[in-house]
């Protein structure tokens, strides 16, 4: 400071909380029994200082605080870490409500995709939108997520599939506060004859700029999208360019996503609704996380992923919304938590770990996000209940009362 005095710390004391619930310890990722371990403190406080958690403890052990401190009354409320959505497709224009109406009458998602609808219809709308409209769209979606307690979100591109729109999407996600993943291999756009020639274009023409904007690359490895050998070509080039790797795999069929993810040292394979016994075993024996997306399985009326098997075998499991206009028009991690409890047979403590620590791990941020512990970013969700378990229990309820991001009340 020019006058020689240090700036006063910006402090927020969340006091008289009925409960603070946070994954125990500081290790990440959490797997096996460790995923079910929580610290729950009753009659508690959370002290935030300069955007970080300074202390968490019992009210009766709170030292007198000298100097300026803002206070937030936590009476009757439970606090959990800010939720982390590690898999969304929040950058799109238009909607797919007509397709949803057709699916409601029996059309299948894969049929619509094969007929040039589905993902490609969102590609048409997104190409026409322009970057400013995309920023507005991601900001709108971010506000929806925040209202459900999501304080950190990843978003994929993948609805541009041309150089200009893919790069505009990655910039829009960043400008709206998201963590960008380049989903350059989401579908083969109509101007290309096949997946091979499209991937050759994407790697040669888009990757050199996308690597500067994105943290990770993703591919839709599936019948009708990209097969394992084309996905390997795309992901290998992305890895070479310094991007972390993610895969959409085993959504409808097992087409080699898990072995490829392990071979290339990917961060995660996401979906896994079609994963069989061998895939469960392989994933559990690896450092690749499985990201489960039960809102997508529900929205498409598909079987759920073998979550219990993955957890019991010791796999790293995270949960996310998969928010997108086609297969999961759902931005609520609390709803995903309810589905994980009722459909995936996950324990409530496992669920909290899967939408905080393990999701942060998938985004390479578990050292600073996902816990209410000293030194972590002060992202705090105050639930409208004295018992944190309502996060999953209140099916579709408005369970989020207040949201604090980096020590500031934002919602
Ligand atoms: O994760 N499966 C591929 N991609 C998305 C859906 C995208 C869309 O339908 O627009 C998913 O489900
Ligand atoms: Fe997805």
Q: Any key phrases for this structure?
A:
binds N-(iminomethyl)-L-glutamic acid; binds fe (iii) ion; 8-stranded parallel beta sheet; alpha/beta; 411 residues
Describe the structure.
By secondary structure, the protein is of the alpha/beta class. It is about 35% helix and about 20% strand. The strands form two sheets. Strands 1, 2, 3, 4, 5, 14, 15 and 16 form an eight-stranded mixed β-sheet that branches. Strand 7, helix 5 and strand 8 (about 180-185) form a beta-alpha-beta unit. Helix 4 packs across helix 5, helix 5 (about 165-175) packs parallel to helix 6 and helix 6 (about 195-215) packs parallel to helix 7. The protein is globular, with a radius of gyration of 21 Å. The protein binds N-(iminomethyl)-L-glutamic acid and fe (iii) ion. Fe (iii) ion (FE) binds near residues 87, 89 and 322. Fe (iii) ion (FE) binds near residues 87, 89, 248 and 322.
Q: Helix segment count?
A: 15
Distance between the termini: 32 Å
- The portion of residues forming beta strands comes to 15-25%
**Could you list the spans in which at least 5 consecutive residues all have pLDDT below 50?**
none
Average pLDDT rating: 96
The percent of residues in helical segments reads 25-40%
Attached small molecules: N-(iminomethyl)-L-glutamic acid, fe (iii) ion
Radius of gyration: 21 Å
Instruction: Profile the largest sheet.
Output: 8 strands, mixed
Q: Which structural class is indicated by helix and strand composition?
A: alpha/beta
Q: What is the overall shape? A: globular
Total strands: the figure is 16
């Amino acid at each position: 400071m020019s006058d020689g005095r240090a700036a006063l710390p910006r402090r927020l004391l969340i006091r008289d909380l009925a409960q603070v619930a946070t994954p125990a310890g500081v290790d990440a990722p959490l797997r096996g029994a460790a995923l079910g371990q929580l610290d729950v403190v009753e009659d508690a406080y959370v002290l935030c200082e300069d955007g970080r958690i300074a202390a968490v403890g019992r009210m009766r052990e709170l030292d007198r605080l000298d100097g300026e401190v803002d206070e937030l009354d936590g009476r009757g409320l439970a606090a959990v870490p800010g939720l982390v959505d590690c898999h969304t497709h929040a950058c799109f224009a238009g909607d797919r409500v007509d397709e949803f109406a057709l699916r409601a009458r029996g059309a299948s998602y894969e049929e619509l995709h094969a007929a040039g609808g589905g993902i490609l219809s969102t590609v048409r709308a997104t190409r026409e939108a322009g970057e400013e409209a995309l920023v507005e769209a991601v900001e709108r979606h971010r506000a929806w997520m925040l209202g459900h307690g999501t304080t950190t979100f990843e978003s994929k591109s993948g609805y541009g599939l041309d150089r200009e729109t893919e790069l505009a999407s990655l910039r829009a996600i960043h400008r709206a506060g998201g963590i960008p993943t380049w989903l350059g291999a989401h579908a083969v756009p109509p101007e290309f004859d096949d997946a091979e020639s499209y991937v050759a274009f994407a790697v040669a023409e888009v990757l050199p700029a996308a690597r500067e904007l994105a943290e990770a690359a993703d591919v839709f490895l599936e019948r009708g999208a990209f097969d394992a050998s084309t996905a390997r070509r795309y992901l290998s080039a992305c890895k070479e360019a310094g991007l972390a790797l993610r895969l959409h795999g085993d959504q409808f069929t097992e087409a080699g996503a898990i072995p490829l993810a392990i071979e290339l040292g990917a961060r995660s394979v996401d979906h896994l609704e079609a994963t069989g016994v061998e895939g469960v075993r392989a994933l559990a024996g690896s450092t690749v996380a499985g990201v489960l997306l039960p809102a997508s399985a529900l929205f498409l009326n598909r079987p759920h992923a073998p979550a219990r098997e993955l957890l019991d075998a010791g796999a790293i499991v995270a949960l996310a919304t998969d928010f997108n206009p086609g297969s999961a028009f759902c931005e609520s991690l609390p709803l995903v938590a309810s589905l994980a409890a009722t459909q995936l047979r996950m324990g409530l403590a496992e669920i909290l770990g899967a939408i905080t620590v393990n999701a942060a791990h998938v985004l390479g941020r578990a050292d600073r996000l996902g816990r209410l512990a000293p030194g972590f970013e002060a992202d705090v969700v105050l639930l409208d209940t004295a018992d944190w378990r309502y996060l999953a229990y209140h099916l579709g309820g408005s369970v989020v009362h207040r949201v604090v991001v980096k020590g500031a009340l934002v919602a």
